[in-house]
Amino acid sequence: MKKTLACSSLMAIFFFLLVGTTPALAEHRAEALYLSPSVGGYLFDDNQDYEEAIAYGLTLGFNYTKKWGTEFTLNYIRTEDEQNVIGDIDVGIFRWDVLYHFFPESPVIPYLAVGMGGLHTDPGEGDRDLNFMAEWGGGLKYYFTDNVALRADARHIYEVEDEANNFLFSGGLIMQFGGSNTDRPLDRK
User: Fold this and answer.
1) What is the reported pTM?
2) Are 115 and 100 in contact (CB under 8 A)?
3) How many other C-beta atoms are found inside a 10 Å radius of the C-beta of residue 84?
4) Residue 156: which pLDDT band, with cuts at 50, 70 and 90?
5) What totals of helices (H) and strands (E) does the chain contain, helices first?
6) 19: helix, coil or strand?
7) Which of 16, 21, 23, 95 is deepest in the core (most CB within 10 A)?
8) In DSSP terms, which residues pair with 60 in a beta bridge?
């Protein structure tokens, strides 16, 4: 838990120092494809009896317009049970999100996200489990060049079958490819 919180805190400090010291050249573009590796902390619901752990992620995203986008994300978490009976537990998450970006012309772009997916738990020995999940949250993107941005993200992940409320906090890099600086008709409304 302390490692996860320390890692998340250091990423947040780095993000806000960079935002305050780098001149911004925001280029959040419509019809752009992007790739975003990330790292952060995953907090399990108390009734799941799992330790908090570091979460690694890789996101493939597409901006339909400057305001609307979609993402497909894979996360990997290696944790253990709090009683140390099972040992190491591998957790894989796949999720699909729809994003709405506020102020897409500015260097710092807040956004909201809502999505769904699955959470796969593999304790190594024992029963594997796949749960449907719904999730929502938000974050910030900060473009410091035409094609590169930093991101900070927070998600509430609800495992439907287990009725578990988990949280994912992460930071990462966005590498954007292609796209258009002009608004499509949907953006102008």
Assistant:
1) 0.80
2) no
3) 8
4) very high
5) 2, 8
6) helix
7) 95
8) 35, 72
